[in-house]
Each structure stands twice: as structure tokens, then as C-alpha cells.
Amino acid sequence: MIARIRQWIAFAIGLVAAGAGAWLRVFAKDIAAPKLKSYSWSGPWKDTVWGFKEQAYLELGRIFLFFGLIVMLVALINFLWSNEAHHKTALEDV
After folding, report:
1. Of 3, 19, 38, 49, which has the most beta carbons under 10 Å away?
2. What pTM was estimated for this model as a whole?
3. Residue 50 and residue 93 in contact, taking contact as beta carbons nearer than 8 Å
4. Who's near 45: CB < 8 A, 6+ residues apart?
């Protein structure tokens, strides 16, 4: 029973991390852009400070997204591996 609770907690942590990573990736430009629209720049966006911040948010989002997906995958595999029905049928076959 305790193992099931830990598996669900791990899955929830993975889901939250993946959600935060996806959110960061989607809204990276909005987070990095200046709040006041009175700024102007010359040159490509990627060479500005805001472009660098956007890339940092994109990479951070990718890290959180993959971390969350890996944690959810490990929790799912652990849940399936420790399934009591699987162990009962495996022991009956022996």
C-alpha cells in the first residue's frame, strides 16, 4: 500500500515537472520580452538580451519536460513491475 502511494506521488511530481517544462517552452518569449513596449532594438532578436533569456527559458523548459517524462515513465514501469496480479500469475506458472 505504501509503495502505491509513493508511485502515485512520483507520478504526480513527474506530471508537475513536465507541465512546468511545457509551460516554460510555450511562454518563453512572453516571459523574456520586456514588459514595457517602448523598447526598440536593431538586429535580430536572438542577439538581444531578451533573445538570450528566451533561449535560457527554452532550455530550462526542455530540461524540466524531459525530467518529468522520465520520472513518470519510471513510476509507470515500477507500478507495472510491482503489480500484484503479475506476481501471482508468475508464481502460479512455476
Report:
1. 19
2. 0.76
3. no
4. 51, 54
Task: Calculate ∠ Cα 25-26-27, nearest 5°.
Answer: 95
Collapsing DSSP states into helix, strand and coil, what is residue 14? helix
Cell numbers representing residue 65 in the block: 519536460
The residue behind cell 509513493 is: 6
User: What's at 40, amino acid-wise?
Assistant: S
Task: Find where cell 509503495 sits.
Answer: 3
Unique residue bearing C-alpha cell 511545457: 22
- Across the chain, which has 94 residues, the per-10-residue mean pLDDT values are 86 96 94 78 80 94 97 92 65 56
